[in-house]
Specification:
About 5% of the residues lie in helices and about 45% in strands. By secondary structure, it is mainly beta. The chain has one domain: Jelly Rolls (Sandwich), CATH 2.60.120. The strands form 5 sheets. It has a 6-stranded antiparallel β-sheet, with no helix packed on it. It has a 3-stranded antiparallel β-sheet with strand order 9-8-11, with no helix packed on it. A two-stranded antiparallel ribbon has the order 4-5. A hairpin with a 2-residue loop joins β4 and β5. The N and C termini lie far apart (about 50 Å). The structure holds 5-phospho-D-arabinohydroxamic acid and zinc ion.
């Protein structure tokens, strides 16, 4: 520990109905225009781009990017679909691959889709009071299959960082789409 670095305790109020923090260090909206190429139905995506809806929101505390520290945030995915495919986060690996993450779902319903660089896939249901452990080396994406906000409290190592490019290039192997009014997990085509 250097003289210039000494961690200080932090406390923050969370609105569990909206996912908002009373004093986020960073809050951002991810709009469709920033991720539309990830959806299966490009025609539906282009149509929706006319209004460019917000797909998800993140409220973050910015904490020291060090192995012994933790980052945490609230991840809020809105309800909706692009064509038949549910709103989802971009998804990423951690830049430091050997770092895990905990997602505690506090509202809504959906899935956590996970995939390794070796091509192994796993998917876990997200519901209030469900905790999903995303192990080191697994890319992860939340998908909102319900009619309300999907809200999770996320915690991960301080130095994890985010690698979006690898998953943008490769694409997740599975999609979650609505068929006959129900969420169905399908293989990505192409
Ligand atoms: C989460 C995600 C959040 C938004 O906090 O950053 O759900 O998803 P994308 O980062 O994929 O856009 C997390 O997993 N942090 O590591
Ligand atoms: Zn993550």
């Amino acid at each position: 520990m250097t003289d210039s670095y000494f961690p200080k305790p932090v406390d923050v109020k969370i609105n569990m109905t909206t996912g908002e923090l009373d004093s986020p260090d960073n809050a951002y909206d991810r709009k469709l225009s920033q991720m539309y190429t990830m959806y299966e139905d490009q025609e539906a995506a282009r149509e929706l781009l006319k209004t460019d809806p917000v797909i998800y929101k993140v409220y973050e505390k910015k904490l020291p990017e060090l192995p012994g520290e933790l980052q945490w945030c609230m991840s809020v995915t809105l309800p909706g679909k692009v064509g038949r495919e549910y709103y989802m986060t971009k998804g990423h690996y951690h830049a430091v691959r050997e770092t895990a993450e905990i997602y505690l779902c506090v509202a809504g319903e959906g899935y956590m889709l996970m995939e390794t660089e070796q091509g192994e896939v796993d998917i876990k249901k997200m519901r209030p009071n469900t905790c999903v452990y995303v192990p080191a080396y697994w890319a992860h994406r939340s998908i909102n299959t319900g009619g309300s906000l999907l809200i999770s409290f996320c915690v991960y190592p301080g130095h994890a960082g985010h690698d979006y490019g690898s998953m943008e290039t490769r694409g997740f192997q599975k999609r979650v789409v609505e068929i006959d009014g129900k969420p169905v997990i399908i293989d990505r085509e192409g």
